[in-house]
Design brief:
With about 325 residues, the protein is mainly α. Helix content is about 70%, strand content about 0%. The protein has 14 helices and two strands, in the order αααααααβαααααααβ. A two-stranded antiparallel sheet has the order 1-2. Helix 2 runs antiparallel to helix 11, helix 5 runs antiparallel to helix 9 and helix 5 crosses helix 10.
Length: about 325
Amino acid sequence: MRKSCLVTKNISLFTIKTFMPTELESPKPTEWQTPPPLVIIVIFIAIFMYSFAAIFIKLSEQDVGPNATVFNRFWIATICLGFWRWMEVLRLRLSFDEMASSKNYTTKELGLLLLGATLAELSQLAWAWSLTETGVANANLLHNFTPVFTAFGGWLLLGHYFGLRFVFGLTLAIVGAITIGLEDWQVGTDNLVGDSLALLSAFFYAMSVLVIEQLRTKFSATGILLWSCLLRSCLTFPLVLLAEDRLFPSSLQGWLAVISLAVLCQVLASMILVHQLKTYSSGFISLFLLLEPIFTAILGWIIFGEQLSFLNWLAFLVVLLGIYLAQSNQGPKKS
């Protein structure tokens, strides 16, 4: 009887802890090292997958509204990440690895999980709202300030140190990213609310990345993303009921779009970037987000025939040069 009770208890603990974002890896090193080429290539691939998001969203919104697109993106990603997480823990259990089973969760840690998901959702909402109040070019341009907020927040809150070459490279990449949308930039008081919301979305997103970096000191990338997607699904669902007349896609194209958006952009791309936050600072990772407008513009040129000027191609080169200078620096380091 006693042995039977112990077995039942162990099964219950396994079920409860399977989907918690437990520590699966060693602690983050105290100093940032120059990343090997393979890491840079993997990050490039993640950002390239992210750049498809605009195309998938555009295809999805031919079938359902923007809020429903976001909701489907997150609940599908939650299922994929839940299965992934279950396989991770099952593998550890079968190998008799107890690393993931002996952690308790403090109120602060659970609060950070909720905070990270809330900040990411606020960023999404501010971004969507900004597109109704200002032009796409203005919104994209101001959203490119995310790395600035991330680097400054890392220095102010987490004690990150950035070398001069990193700062110069970041500045150069920001200038290049701004130049990409400069031709379509509209100046006027009518755009003030939308421009402010776009800038606010960049701030919220940067803060969510900083929170995730803190969580990565203890939790796995899969667990963090799983709970983030689950919470964001719950936060988005009421908005869909209030603002949309259709919850799910009704065509094959719509389903393929939201599934691709969830799997490619929300699961695979996010997994790569969040995983790297175990080793590299949020300021360094967010720097590569400046590649997204380049990939998006090139995909728009190839798929939709959108025109790219000489200034656009010059701006692409400036962004790449800035990223190269920043990532080749022997920093940032943790103080």
